[in-house]
Amino acid sequence: MTEDFTTKVIGAVKFSIFSPEIIRKVSAAKRITVPDTYDEDSYPIDGGLVDQRLGVIDPGLKCKTCGGGVGTCPGHFGHIELVRPVIHPEFAKYLLYIMKATCRSCKLLLLDADEKNDLIKLIEEEGETVLKPQIKRKNCPHCGEAIPELTLMRPTTFFKDKSVMLPTEIRNWLEGISNDDLRLLGFDPLYARPEWMVLTVLLVPPVNVRPSITLETGERSEDDLTHKLVDVIRTNQRLDANINAGAPQLIIEDLWELLQYHITTYFNNEMSNIPPARHRSGRALKTLSQRLKGKEGRFRYNLSGKRVNFSARTVISPDPNISLDEVGVPMAIAKELTVPMRITQWNLERCRQFILNLTYPHADYIVRPDGKRVRVNETNRVEVSSQLAPGWIIDRQLIDGDLVLFNRQPSLHRISIMCHEVRVMPGKTLRLNPLDCPPYNADFDGDEMNLHAIQTEEAQVEADVLMKVHRQILSPRHGKAIIKPQEDHVTGAFYMTNDDCEFTKSEASDLLAIAGITKLPKPDRSDKYSGRLLFSLLLPAELSLKMRTKLGEELVIENGLLIKGSIESKAFENQILERIVEQVGYERAKWFLDSATRITLEVLTRHGLSVSLRNYSVEGEAHTHLNSLLDKTNREIDAYILQFKNKTLQKNPGLTPRETLEEKIMEITSKARDASGALVEKSFGKVNTAILMAKIGARGSLLNAVQMSAMLGQQAVRGKRLKRGYRKRLLPHFKRGVIGGMERGFITGSFKTGLKPYEYFQHSMGGRESLVNTAIRTARSGYMQRRLVNAFQDVVVRKDGTVRDARDIIVQFKYGGGGLDFYSNPAELLEKKIAVEDEG
Amino acid sequence: MKKNIDYGEAVGVVAAQSIGEPGTQMTMRTFHYAGVAEHVPLGLPRLIELVDAKRVPKKVFMDVLVSKALAKDYEAVKTVAKNIECIKLYDIAKIQESFENKCINLVLDKDELEFIGVSGQDVKKVVEELGQKLEYDGRKGVITVYNKEETKGRVFRDLRKLTNRLKALKIKGISGLSKAVVVKDGNDYFVRVSGINLPEVLKLENIDLTKVYTNSVIDIEKILGIEAARNALIREIKQVLDLQGLTVDIRHIIVIADAVSSDGVIKSVGRHGLSGEKASILARAAFEVTVKHLIDASVAAKSDHLQGVAENIIVGQPIPLGTGMVKLRMKWFEVPEEKATEGEPSLFTKKRTLRKRKSISEDH
User: Fold this and answer.
1) Residue B149 Cα distances to A347, B146, B168, angstroms
2) Rounded to an integer, what distance in angstroms lies between the CA atom of residue A690 and that of residue A700?
3) Could you say which of A164, A194, A224 is where a domain stops?
């Protein structure tokens, strides 16, 4: 059994530079010399860049170093011997720094004894080199040699007193510097000698790192790195040939420089001052540096985020009939995903059945205690099932009640991923209780979500205790309910708890059965049941409250009995739901939400609620009022414009007359819209379903109704009346120089009456701004959040109750000042904790 | 009802998410404070500015509250405003360069002078401090300034230099503060002024030192210290969120403010601040500027000791957070035969270990 557990832990990762000796030592393919990959028979060339000692990527071949095939051979390094040293471009600035700090003749640090002692003392105090020694003398304090002026022309060309330095000269200089001096400069000479930064040997990565792909035509396409290495070898060979043939120095230096270019771009193809190496097609090559960097680089794409198995993704759709902590999983997914199940003496029979099953809930694999994995098929299933014993593990398909993690991107907060219980269903979408939409920020217009089957018992327990949906009813952001009754639930509950809502015995039994309540109480209105009584059955007996609702009524609940008032959104979520969570616990709150959902939706379905066009027409007296309101508004605007033109307008403090005018008009128009809102509300009254829904907080707002029935109101760009457009006018519909309400985006039409052409254009101007803003905002806030999370990810409450970061520096002595947990786990977890202790 | 927070709770991440998540719901509007500062960023831009610990915030302004006795007296407050506002020579005089006469004529605007309550003589005194030769014609209200030393061939250049110096010459008020406006708040008046000069304002008489306000966290840090800056940061972030109607628990904001100021200076959250100064090489490389961090680490042969979250994810180990923080290993024990009755098995009879169990997937 012990093989199942890894006992070793990575304690630290050390970074260093390979010396030429180490490169030669780790190299499995000594000296790669052929600038080519495969021969005509598409067989790897010995000494080429896909030499079989570097590992294999073609199925069927064996690695000549380790004997492994594809999948087992991890790949091995090779190396190229460079005929002339070449500077590693990423280290160039360090070379400059070292050479500036040392003498070219005696290779000693350009500090006299005192300065050196000061530096040593400083390093002792600080623990590491914090200051780069600044040298401002003209001669070496040790041998008197003049100090040359050194410059670096990026990326790799060094100048000494304005003449070019060859890499050989640089390497000689660096080799002479003592280890002690290097330590003072902040180097660790055991792991990073500066001369190693001038390459004499180039490490060739294994083929696994740069696999070639075969196109449909049968043609091979090599990786960018292989292309670059071919260039390096080819140039290296030409350089070698020319040196041996005694070619003139000029030609040799040209080739040397070319080799330097190839190696520079091999490491980083985005260096400034040199053109990037390109593929035949003109695309810039993706070389080592580019592989690591950025969002699609190795770090962020493969290391900070990893691909996983045992996951599924598809479109989501709503199902209010499943519990809020369930997820409906299509059969096709349930068949594909598996969960390991450890056999014990208690579940042995059940497991045996999974093995014997030929169809859906069956097990594909068993894992024996010795770690051997056996595939179960029709022929061996009976035999395997008879061998089963505690300690074995079977991989069985997903069944009802399994715990899975459910996630929707963007994962902006921790409740973007929660633990659900599986409920296998027909259909091809993942089903989700609409109550769970707010934490995921999901809707059903084509959203997709991801599902992960949890693979170990430890993780399942953790997910169950910490991540289960009903434990996230309270948002960690503000400690208030985020999973809460919405829309139709509120409307249904409001209708149900109205004074005149009654149900017959048969209706009441139906409703209660749907909510899962099997005991029918005594009727409270002769032989009929009031809606309030039925709703009260959902409430815990502990609940008592008194509040004023959004409609201004009084709502009274006494010992779990709704006595007076109608439920609206505020009462439903803030008062009832949050109180249940706090006073009774999450489980009860979950039951309340589930049953309330079913009962209210059923009530609403039976009663019916419709919204029609007539809901939005303002007629009769209200219409005249509206018209006179518009007239009044326009008159007021004109009056101010007249004042402005006569220069009699009273300036607002600190504003120009023009700004004052704009501000006044904005004020008037927004007042006009508010006034029309009041008008609409008054004329539609309590019978209008649209207004009613807005008032009880179920859906929509008064503003929606106003815009549909009365007027759109003032359109604005950048918080000001519309301005830009044609010369001295917004649109060609207007006269030049007129700055009245209509001409600057005060829209008096409504969606119901329809917009005039110019109103339509004005409305689209405002609409465009908000679209652009949304696009910009998502990008900006995404980056801000990435930075925030990155900066604070190590800030954790420690065992001593302090809040500290990764450096162990105290951020807070007690979390939030009082050390209290405001966002999770009230009463119920404490109970659970006690239960756990009993078991242990 | 509330309980103590569990150890291992990732309060930093939760705080960061709680502040960041509503970012998508925020507006990008700017606001103007009656004539003092226009386009004061609000919503998301302001929030970004705050967590970035920008050295120079976009628009800074101060509210100077006068002492209680004077707060209801409009005229008194107006006087304070007048005295605060920085008036430069440029604001009260036309500056005319005369290249023939190699001098500069300052034609004083009498109305403006009267408005701010300064006489021509006063202006002359200020200009004299530059040490240049000058003449003052009190009747015409013209000051003629000559360049003191005549450098050959550079006359025009020197003259223009002098002009620029004259333009920026402070006649009155507190430097750095422009546009002072009296604002009414309930029955009280106070002065709102654009720009910032905290030390000078605090020296003023007749003001309520405890109520001077500015939106510049950096200036508060410089003058009043890190604790004041932390409080200011909390207040400013809260204000941004409240204005958008977003509810975020104050404790999240406090964690952010405390973490940002825990080193005694306000650090920004980006690669130039907290994220760039992390001990872990891998965490820094995974954030931004990957290659530079790797190269720097290799030169000094640094080690990453995997203390944080990001680096443990990278090497594939449990993270030091929550349940991953518990260094506990339990012994496997068989359940005695007779105890095994019916019912579901207890979760705690199975071998459990902190470190990662080889996942089943790897065996495929």
Assistant:
1) 103, 9, 21
2) 8
3) A194
- One domain for residues A545 and A632: no
Range of the domain at A666: 613-772
Per-residue model confidence as pLDDT tens digits over A416-469: 999 999 999 999 999 999 999 999 999 999 999 999 999 998 899 999 999 999
Nearest beta carbon to residue B24 from set A7, A781, A812: A781
8 Å CB contact of B254 and A456:
no
Q: Mind telling me how many Å the CA of A240 is from chain B's nearest CA?
A: 30
Which tens digit of pLDDT belongs to each residue from A285-295?
899 999 998 88
Residue B343 lies in a domain: no
Same domain, A722 and A656: yes
- Find the closest chain B residue to A374 by CA distance: B364
Band (pLDDT 50/70/90 cuts) for residue A17 is: very high
Nearest Cβ partner of A821 from B4, B252, B323? B4
> Cβ B2–A367 below 8 Å, yes or no?
no
Distance from CA of A252 to the nearest CA of B (A): 30
The pair of structure tokens assigned to B254 is 């406090």
Residue of B251, B263, B333, B349 best to disrupt the A interface, most CBs of A under 10 A = B251
Confidence at A836, pLDDT banded by 50, 70, 90: very low
Query: For residues A547 and A725, what is the distance between their CA atoms, to the nearest angstrom?
Result: 53
* β-sheet bridge partners, residue A396: A339, A363
Query: Do A603 and A617 fall within a single domain?
Result: no
pTM of the model: 0.85
Q: Which residues of A touch B300 (CB under 8 A)?
A: 128-129, 186-188, 192
Interhelix angle for A505-515 vs A586-607, to 10°? 140
Contact criterion met (CB below 8 Å) for B106 and B115: no
Residues B166, B99 share a domain: yes
Residue B356 resides in a domain: no
Contact predicate A521/A527, CB 8 Å: no
Q: Which of A701, A698, A704 is nearest to A491 (CA)?
A: A698
Q: Cβ–Cβ of A793/B12 closer than 8 Å?
A: yes
A700 shares its domain with A596: no
Tokens of B288: 């931004």
Q: What is the pLDDT of residue A3?
A: 44
Decide: A367 and A340 in contact? Cβ < 8 Å. yes
Give the tens place of pLDDT for each residue, A26-61: 887 777 777 777 777 777 777 888 888 888 877 777
Mutant choice from B291, B334, B358 vs A, greatest count of A C-beta within 10 A: B291
The DSSP secondary structure of A303-364, one letter per residue, reads ISS---SSEEEEEEEE-TTS-TTEEEEEHHHHHH-EEEEE--TTTHHHHHHHHH--SSS-EE
B135 and B237 co-located in one domain: no
Q: Which of A654, A773, A792 sits opposite B36 (nearest CB)?
A: A654
User: Which one of B4, B6, B17, B309 would you mutate to disrupt binding with A, by most A Cβ within 10 Å of its Cβ?
Assistant: B17
**Closest chain B C-alpha to A472 CA, distance in angstroms:** 13
Asked if A15 and B258 come within 8 Å (Cβ–Cβ), the reply is no
* Min Cα separation B96/chain A (Å): 28
The whole-angstrom distance between A838's CA and the closest CA on chain B is: 12
Residue B236 in domain: yes
Split into its structural domains, chain B has a count of 4
Q: Which residues of B touch A306 (CB under 8 A)?
A: 316
Q: Same domain, yes or no, for A491 and A634? A: no
Q: Looking at the structure, do residues B159 and B94 belong to the same domain, yes or no?
A: yes
Asked whether this complex has an ipTM greater than 0.95, the answer is no
Is residue A363 included in any domain, yes or no?
Answer: no
Q: Do A276 and A285 meet the contact criterion of CB atoms below 8 Å apart? A: yes
Domain of residue B159 covers 87-172
Tens digit of pLDDT for each residue in B71-85? 777 787 777 777 777
B64 vs chain A: nearest CA distance in angstroms?
17
